[in-house]
Amino acid sequence: MSVYTAEVEPARAATEERPAAGPAYRCIYAKNGLTGVPDAIQSPWDLFSIPMLGRRQIIDGEAGHYEFLSYKEVYDSALRVGSAIRSRGVNPGDRCGIYGCNCPEWIMTMEACNSQAMTYVPLYDTLGANAVEFIINHAEVSIVFVQEKKIPAVLFMMLSVNASADSGMLIEVCLPKNCDHPLRCFKFGSSAVVSFGNVSSLQKKEAQEANVSCFSWEEFAQLGTVDCQLPLRRSTDICTIMYTSGTTGEPKGVILKNAAFLAEVFSMDYLLAETDKSATTEDVYFSFLPLAHIFDQIMETYCLSKGSSIGFWQGDIRYLIEDLQELKPTMFCGVPRVFDRLYTGIVAKITSSGSLRKSLFDYAYSYKLRNLEKGLRQDEAAPLLDKFVFSKIKQSFGGRVRIMFSGGAPLPRHVEEFLRVTCCCVLVQGYGDIGELQPNGAMKIIDRKKNIFKLSQGEYVAVENLESVYSRCPLITSIWVYGNSFESFLVAVVVPERKAVEDWAAENNETGDCKTLCNNAKARKYFLDELNSTGQKHKLRGFELLRAVFLEPVPFDFERDLITPTFKLKRPQLLKYYKERIEEMYTEAKGVMQNGCK
């Protein structure tokens, strides 16, 4: 098929000079100009060395620039590691554990397993020892790859198991320890622990005492070869066993086959093509959401299928913004808690910038929002306002983000709207289980099924929806709303903003540290009133308002097992931890109600 077409020349005046040659030709594919070549690509070798996985190098305790491994380097490493795993007697279909935070070695281990038709079992890096022990044994993991700082915990777990059996035998262990039926797991004779980094001679000795070999990443890779013969891989093979983060008790494993995993990857391509545009080699993805979470595995696998680059965060939330500004990603996937905190910080700065600047911001916000609601694209809604008003906010994410994803829990509507307007990018939510039909026929996600309960008088409560509303109160950072079918009203444990507590104390001539002030009955009453005022403002019904609160000066954290790695509340654990406080709040509230009736 010819790609050239002849153009008919218009009639010319007799005196007009004619071209020296015949009819003019042009390429029909060049209607928008010739395709350019990115400045970074200088030779075909550069196409072979596209940046794939990158992290910030730590020099003298300071994080430097991102340094990347190429696709070729990662491919070879995955083959070597996969071959090395086979050399340890682990065969296609066997299980390989991956335990640690997001890093290049995590992805390379996953791809090593994929190359050898093995099943990888991710473990959240924030899991406690009991959960790790449970998953490794429940999944019958034969070899485990571990973040360097997690090695001591894994070795301690193994040493606690009776590992005196002969080489190659299955060890009988009992997890949890009061279980009546022991699990037959952990092939100590063929198993190994591989560090993402280095291992000490002492750690190697401890591993030997448990009949387990322990390798550094480099040592283990040397056991393999890039010339290994790969087994047949089928769509019906088990790709991964995804364990829950333990929101409601012991982790539960979900088996995903290759076909299901790939269907999600290609669905993501369709989603992006329809929403914005498919990923390309020019895109950079910021790896922040835990790789043990299926959503991030899908996202990173999709990016790799498109030749995009992936940069990993340092693993410390304190440096999240710094990492974003250094990497300057085009794609970012986070969780509602992170987006909510960013929203709160930005709004606080706008509010304190003065009435004139705030008025100008409010005008720009309303103008762009109206245009977005009319159906205009991001780059069409308000380009001048994007440049002169919203550009600084976009810089919080590095300045180049074109699409953001929120996963793990519902993103409050006001936060979602704010980010879409001010960050000048598309925002997509990935979240499931309860929906509410809207008047226009659309489905609105309001909660998860297990987070809906009934009060004693029969009203149903969608608790995550309430927490989303109450979180709009600027005086708090976190809230856990509680109720049950034996009580007629709701109470809550609230983590207040420290400054809000200090401001209240100054205005009311109260003294003491934050913990002391949080125990002050007047302070609790003040925060309760402010929360209910927020609830009423957003049209919560009477039974959805709070009757009592407990002010918690310490944020909900992983150490107390109160939140999941994706920052969702662990409701059973919260109830166990705050059981006495809950009883006190109900007793106090009922006393107030009785006195009021008298």
Protein architecture, described:
Strand 10, helix 6 (201-209) and strand 11 (213-215) form a beta-alpha-beta unit. Helix 5 (151-159) packs parallel to helix 6 and helix 8 (258-275) packs across helix 9. The model is unreliable at 1-19, 21-26 and 162-190 (pLDDT under 50). This protein has three domains: 53-276 and 283-297, Rossmann fold; 335-431, no CATH class; 450-597, GMP Synthetase, Chain A, domain 3 (2-Layer Sandwich). The protein has 598 residues and is an alpha/beta fold. It has a seven-stranded mixed sheet with strand order 4-3-15-14-16-17-18, with helices on both faces. Helices cover 39% and strands 20% of the residues.
Architecture blueprint of SSEs:
Elements: E1 4-6, E2 25-27, H1 44-48, E3 51-59, E4 62-70, H2 71-87, E5 95-99, H3 104-115, E6 119-123, H4 129-138, E7 141-146, H5 151-159, E8 171-173, E9 183-185, E10 192-195, H6 201-209, E11 213-215, H7 217-221, E12 238-243, E13 253-257, H8 258-275, E14 284-287, H9 294-305, E15 309-312, H10 320-327, E16 331-334, H11 336-351, H12 355-373, H13 378-381, H14 383-388, H15 391-395, E17 403-407, H16 413-422, E18 426-430, E19 435-437, E20 443-445, E21 452-454, E22 460-462, H17 463-470, E23 476-482, E24 490-496, H18 498-507, H19 514-518, H20 521-537, E25 546-551, H21 571-577, H22 579-597
Parallel strand pairs: 3-15, 5-6, 5-7, 7-10, 10-11, 14-15, 14-16, 16-17, 17-18, 24-25
Antiparallel strand pairs: 1-2, 3-4, 8-9, 12-13, 19-20, 21-22, 23-24
Helix pairs in contact: 2-3, 5-6, 8-9, 12-16
GO biological process, one term: wax biosynthetic process
Pfam families: AMP-binding
GO molecular function: long-chain fatty acid-CoA ligase activity
